[in-house]
Structures are given as structure tokens and as C-alpha cells.
Amino acid sequence: AGTYILKFKVANSKWLLAYEIQSRSQITLLLVGPHENFYKALNNQVFNLKTFSLVPIRYQDRYDIMRWRNE
């Protein structure tokens, strides 16, 4: 187990993708974002870039999201 980081470039910008391997058939995506402040955002589980924010799905919101997705 543990958190793994994949580094890649998008239009000459360095980006990172953090993930955890849960089993042979399941990977959990933790965060994708530009290199700047990535590790700080990973620790806080919140990534902010200007007016945009990426936050984890709250447990209590999962059924609302499922209904919205299937509309």
C-alpha cells in the first residue's frame, strides 16, 4: 500500500497525479493538479487554483451525486 505519484507534462507545465493501489483491480485517484502546491494540497485534500477548488467527495453527498449522474 501507500500513495504513489505519477509526474507528467501538459503544455510545458509539470503536473502530478496521486493514487493508491487498493487491490489488483482497484486504484483510488487521490488528486491531479499542477506541481505548484501539489503536496500541500494532497495533505489537506483540497486543491485551490484562483477561483477553482477540487475537494474530496463527502460521504453524505454520495447518493445526491449518484442521482445527479443518472439523470
- Rg result: 14 Å
> How many helices in DSSP terms?
2
**What percent strand?**
over 45%
Helix content: 10-25%
Strand line-up in the sheet with most strands: 1-2-3
Q: How many DSSP-defined strands?
A: 5
Task: Give the assembly state of these chains.
Answer: single chain
Unreliable segments of 5+ consecutive residues: none
Mean pLDDT score: 81
Envelope shape? globular
Describe it for me?
With 71 residues, this protein is an alpha+beta fold. 21% of the residues lie in helices and 48% in strands. It has two helices and five strands; from the N terminus they run E-E-E-H-E-E-H. It has helices at 38-44, 62-69; strands spanning 3-10, 13-23, 26-34, 47-49, 52-54. The strands form two sheets. It has a three-stranded antiparallel beta sheet, covered by helices on one side. A hairpin with a 2-residue loop joins strand 2 (13-23) and strand 3 (26-34). The chain is globular and about 40 Å long. The model has no long low-confidence stretch (mean pLDDT 81).
In terms of topology, how is this protein built?
Blueprint: E1 3-10, E2 13-23, E3 26-34, H1 38-44, E4 47-49, E5 52-54, H2 62-69
Summarize, please.
By secondary structure, the chain is of the alpha+beta class. Helices cover 21% and strands 48% of the residues.
Provide tags for this entry.
71 residues, alpha+beta, three-stranded antiparallel sheet, two-stranded antiparallel sheet, 2 helices
